[in-house]
Amino acid sequence: MMSRPNGLFAVQYVPDFRAIYELWSSATSYADLHAQLRELGPALCQPFRNSSFKFVVESVNKSHTMQHQIEIIDSFSYLSFEGPVSMNNPEQIYAVLEEWQKGTQILLRVSLGRQVARSSRSAVGLFDLKKRRYIGNTSMDAELSLIAANQALARKGKLVYDPFVGTGSFLFACAYYGAMTMGSDIDGRPLRGRGRLSISSNLEQYNLVSEFLDVFIMDFANLSLRSGFLFDAIICDRNTVSLSNE
């Protein structure tokens, strides 16, 4: 259980999280949960009364049929939401969170929460190296690239630079989160590409051309950038840095 006093969350890709919810109520049975929400519900629902929404059921150690999930969701119909139901692009997502004792039919806890952030774990499949048009010997694993981009706080309005860019794995991950990206490498071969394939091929594949500035050949130990040129983040493979220092 996590709390954040000001209600602000910044979650992009965190391997241990699927989503973060604002907890509205929690109990050891549905009867107790509904009793709490009938009392607290009006005040909790008021700020989101007219927002489009959908409900989901998330269970640990148990699975439900779709029909049973619908029955669970319908049991919350007394909550005073007046906005339209939207399954594809809702403004608010409410989750019924169940925890069952493993191997039994014993419900340990059931909660209702409003989703405030969701990890973009699906991006791992999107950036899978097996599906990428252009890769090289130093192309970084998709999951590690996304973790690094998250640690660098890559997002819209930020400028991120990779001084050992190779085939651009870190740039793609940072651009995915909206950052403007650029990179350099002492070896020009991965920058020039192979045949018709290059870093540009991958940018087109991921539809990230507008978040890419350029790549250029440069020895990071002898900077060619003008003095005072500032980046919001410099991101690179620590193993590459170690090798360059030897």
From TrEMBL:
Gene Ontology BP terms: methylation
> Is Methyltransferase given among the entry's keywords?
yes
Indicate yes or no for the key word Methyltransferase: yes
Alphabetically ordered keywords of this record: Methyltransferase, Transferase
The record's GO CC annotations read: cytoplasm
tRNA (guanine(10)-N(2))-methyltransferase TRMT11 N-terminal domain span:
18-121
Entry-linked InterPro entries: SAM-dependent_MTases_sf, TRMT11_N
Tell me, what is one Gene Ontology molecular-function annotation carried by this entry?
methyltransferase activity
Q: What protein does this entry describe?
A: tRNA (guanine(10)-N(2))-methyltransferase TRMT11 N-terminal domain-containing protein
Organism for this UniProt entry: Pneumocystis jirovecii (Human pneumocystis pneumonia agent)
